[in-house]
Amino acid sequence: MAAERLSMRKLRELLRQRLELKLSVREIARSLGIGVGTVNRYLYRAQAAKLRSWPLPPELDDDAALTALLFADEGKVVAWSSRAGNVEKGRVAVELELKNPGTKPWTLAGAMLRGAKGEELTPLPDATPVSILPGFSK
């Protein structure tokens, strides 16, 4: 199950401490009472979004805009697979957006991926298992 997101207040404070105060990851984690891994995950998102200075640009004053920028990739699952029976041909990346409008949790267990020509794609053993609760997207 995915970890709950930080509040926007904590997220903005995390960004301020890193971008303006230049605090270390450990200092930020201690200050906010969160784990070092959590700080690193948010800083990775900020770096990917090219947020490099504080204060943030005025267009990111809106919480929804900052959320959209930092979590644009959320709801997508990248699965690595090899063509069935032919590992020598290498891997293909499959990007899926999954939604569960039902009332019961849903998983990828037993699901089958098919290529553009209908060929079966076999998930590699290191593929990340996915579980989607009712009403949520992954």
UniProtKB/TrEMBL annotation:
The lineage of its organism: Bacteria, Pseudomonadati, Myxococcota, Myxococcia, Myxococcales. Residues 11-98 form the HTH IS408-type domain. Pfam families: Sigma70_r4_2. One of its GO terms (molecular function) is sigma factor activity. GO terms for biological process: DNA-templated transcription initiation. InterPro entries: HTH_IS408/IS1162_type, RNA_pol_sigma70_r4_t2, RNA_pol_sigma_r3/r4-like, WH-like_DNA-bd_sf. This is Transposase, IS21 family.
